[in-house]
Design goal:
The complex is a heterodimer of chains A (about 70) and B (about 700). In chain A, about 20% of the residues lie in helices and about 40% in strands. Chain A has about 70 residues and is of the alpha+beta class. Chain A has one domain: Ferrous iron transport protein A (FeoA) (SH3 type barrels, Roll), CATH 2.30.30.90. The radius of gyration of chain A is 11 Å and the shape is globular. Classes of the chains: A alpha+beta (about 70), B alpha/beta (about 700).
């Protein structure tokens, strides 16, 4: 299960990443293994999405979300 | 002013760093460039409680010392480059107390470079309100640095921060955060040895960033490259290991020092605002309403100050020509320099208003929501959600908008944005459109409320957006991506705008515009003045002689005689000669040699067109007397056919030409400055002029 499959309001915990390059950028922004992520909202046109992580709101594209594997 | 110590401000974006900078330095600041790069360097001075003066440098906001954009790359190079004498004696790291975890990543990286640090724990009032309990003493003890709780917005804790800056030792005393050497032991040891540095984290960063650091010599960089191969150093893997280690340290630290209330996922005010502002329907409705408001403001609020500036310049020109004896020098100052300068200055109100409004949108956090909403559409046409800001800015002026593309991380997205921004109908095109529309479009209403002239103007604005998007779409397939595109962006909490910051931004941007555009326009105005005032050989003298003959002097009033002489001189001046030379090329577009002169002279800046038309049709005064220019142009007839010159077809063709052609030397200059490669402005100039020619040709023959 990846982050892109969650619906708005659902919560997941990061397990690992499928893409090294993206993982480096995501981890810098606080998306680390073991971290809890909640989907806050989806952009009006369906992409990107906004998530709540490490105490703040982050937006990322669906593709980037699909590289985050959840527990 | 000479400073006793140099202090750098470092922190994440949206942590109140620039607010703190403004408080510390007051109006006592200046904007320059970091050596060798076009990143704004904001510096200012601050008096410390012990009587010393500190020079404060505001470094660009960044989430990490690993740069993702041009602006961010400056942070590490300033901190690491000891040779240029820019390295700070002390770093103030600003942390958002309500969002400590992510903020601390940058702190731990900076701390490991072992430069003395003071931590400013900003927005302490916000975190108190949210019920976050920070044991500041323990926090400071664990980090080994002074930690000062402040609220930059409410100007609290600033004196304590200044005390801490004055008190801090010259030697870095902070605790190590992670075991840096464990990440890549061999390469760190080798780099330390070869480059004679003793800081392991500096050595590791050199391994990561040596290719982009300008201060390393080629040999040093090659040596590091060799070491990387020798020890099979993988930059991304190393960075991933490091980041995880750092967050482990941060989690431990926060576990001991910070207590958060359980209801962290509560519905915040910001969330409620987002529900409306990024709503499927209302989100876009509100966005377009705001855009309409911005246009309205740019045009209606600026009308009065703009006419004031124009009047001021006219007054100045009159004074100079009255006081000083007439001659080439006065003519140069009045018709060359002052006329050119007034062409730039007159746009200050529009630019100031646009940037005030944009900085309000950015400051409140709304702009990042626009980016969020528009990313999908923009990506389809080869742009990026972040391209929205420069494109909107393009309605006022392409120059500052192109400078604002620096925060687009992706190279290809940034280049396409730079290439298409000048297509957006900027305010310099407005005088031409108004003149042409007033000439050929009747001023009456259709369907009760729509004014025909207004509709024509709206159509020109829509055309500019459509053409920018279309060209971007084409370039998407031509340009090759250098790196993968991504869109990972913080959505900051909504806040009230900081009016002082808005004022500063407005001032900064207007100043940059005047300096950037001003230099070029003055230079080109002077050249044009020469071309218009002198002709090959003794042609001018012959004209004077000819009109001194009795048949002219007796039959004509001195006034009309002067006009005839002036227009004949213009025709035989170098500019006129050029106009005749290019006439065959522009004839298919419906333009004659007179329009040709205007086209050439307005290469420097589009707004020059109206002024040149005024001179050519020998109207008294200049561009400000729009009405009279219009009358003259209206009654102008073609000597061969006896029909009016400015028909619907010619006027529309001219409008098309100005809609597409890159008639702006300042934009060419700024594109070169931002891309550091003359081929970009060259390609841009070529494609825009090409488009302009084709569009004018089609429109002229369509309406003829």
């Amino acid at each position: 299960m990846t982050l892109s499959q969650l619906e708005v309001g659902e919560i997941g915990i990061v397990k690992e990443f499928t893409d090294l390059e993206m993982s480096v950028k995501l981890m810098e922004m606080g998306c680390l293994p073991g971290e809890e992520i909640k989907i806050s909202r989806i952009a009006p046109l369906g992409d990107p999405i906004a998530i709540h992580v490490s105490g703040y709101q982050l937006s990322l594209r669906k593709f980037e979300a699909s590289t985050i594997v959840l527990q | 002013m000479k400073a006793d110590i140099r202090v750098a401000l470092v922190g994440n974006p949206n942590t109140g760093k620039s607010t703190l900078f403004n408080i510390l330095t007051g109006l006592n600041q200046k904007i320059g460039n970091f050596p060798g790069v076009t990143v704004d360097k904001k510096t200012g001075f601050c008096q410390l409680p012990d009587g010393r003066t500190a020079e404060i440098i505001d470094l660009p906001g960044t989430y990490s010392i690993y740069p993702k954009s041009k602006d961010e790359s400056i942070v590490f190079s300033v901190l690491a480059d000891k040779a240029k004498g820019l390295t700070p004696d002390l770093i103030v790291v600003i942390l958002d107390a309500s969002n400590l975890k992510r903020n601390l990543l940058l702190y731990t990286q900076i701390a490991d470079l072992k430069i003395p640090i003071v931590v400013a724990l900003n927005m302490i009032d916000v975190s108190d309100k949210a019920g976050i309990d920070i044991d500041i003493d323990l926090f400071a003890k664990k980090l080994g640095v002074l930690v000062v709780p402040i609220s930059a917005r409410k100007i609290k804790g600033i004196d304590q921060l200044k005390n801490a800056i004055a008190y801090t030792n010259k030697i870095a005393l902070q605790q190590d955060t992670i075991d840096v050497e464990a990440i890549a032991p061999q390469i760190i040891a080798q780099i330390k040895e070869t480059l004679k540095i003793d800081n392991p984290y500096l050595a590791l960063q050199l391994a990561h960033q040596h290719e982009t650091l300008s201060y390393l010599s080629t040999e040093q960089s090659d040596r590091i490259e060799k070491l990387e191969h020798e020890f099979s150093f993988h930059s991304q893997k190393s960075q991933a290991t490091e980041t995880i280690a750092r967050y482990n340290f941060i989690n431990d630290l926060l576990y001991d020092t910070v207590k958060k209330p359980e209801t962290a996922h509560d519905e915040t005010v910001s969330n409620k605002i987002d529900k409306i502002l990024t709503h499927k329907v209302f989100g876009f409705v509100i966005f377009f309403a705001i855009l309409m408001f911005i246009f309205q403001a740019i045009f209606s609020w600026s009308a009065y100050p703009m006419s004031l500036i124009e009047d001021l310049f006219i007054w100045l020109q009159k004074v100079i020509s009255n006081v000083l004896p007439a001659g080439p020098l006065v003519s140069l100052v009045v018709d060359g320099v002052l006329a050119g300068l007034s062409g730039v200055m007159v746009f200050i109100p529009q630019i100031a208003i646009l940037f005030a409004l944009i900085s309000i949108l950015e400051d409140t956090g709304y702009m990042s929501r626009v980016t969020f909403m528009m990313d999908k559409v923009m990506r389809k046409v080869g742009l990026n959600g972040k391209s929205v800001v420069p494109l909107i800015g393009g309605f006022a002026c392409a120059v500052p908008s192109i400078m604002s593309t620096r925060n687009i991380e992706n190279w290809k997205d940034r280049m396409i944005t730079i290439m298409v921004t000048p297509l957006v109908a900027c305010s310099a095109r407005l005088p031409i459109y108004t003149l042409m529309i007033a000439l050929v479009v009747p001023n009456r209403n259709v369907w009760w409320i729509f004014n025909l002239q207004g509709l024509a103007l709206t159509a020109m604005y829509l055309l500019s957006i459509v053409s920018a998007v279309t060209v971007a779409f084409v370039m998407k397939f031509i340009l090759k991506a250098r790196e993968r595109g991504y869109f990972i962006m913080e959505l900051p909490v909504y806040r009230m705008p900081r009016w002082k910051n808005v004022g500063f931004t407005m001032y900064d941007r207007s100043k940059t515009f005047v300096l950037q555009a001003g230099k070029v326009i003055i230079a080109v105005s002077v050249i044009l003045w020469v071309l218009k005032s002198y002709g090959p050989g003794d042609t001018f003298a012959k004209i004077d002689q000819k009109y001194h003959q009795a048949q002219y002097v007796k039959t004509m009033t001195p006034d009309s005689l002067n006009k005839v002489i002036a227009s004949e001189k213009l025709e035989s001046s170098y500019a006129g000669v050029f106009g005749h030379v290019i006439e065959p090329v522009i004839k298919p577009l419906g333009f004659d040699w007179k329009i040709g002169i205007a086209l050439i002279s307005s290469f420097a800046a589009r707004e020059v067109f109206v002024g040149t038309m005024a001179t050519i049709y020998s109207v008294e005064g200049d561009a400000d007397k729009m009405e009279s220019v219009q009358q003259k142009m209206h009654s102008a007839t073609n000597p061969d056919t006896g029909k009016p010159v400015f028909t619907l077809a010619v006027a529309f063709s001219l409008m098309m030409f100005y809609a597409f052609a890159m008639q702006c030397a300042s934009t060419v200059a700024v594109v070169y400055r931002e891309t550091k490669d003359w081929r970009w402005p060259a390609v841009q100039f070529a494609y825009m002029t090409g488009l302009a020619y084709v569009a004018s040709f089609i429109v002229y023959h369509w309406f003829k």
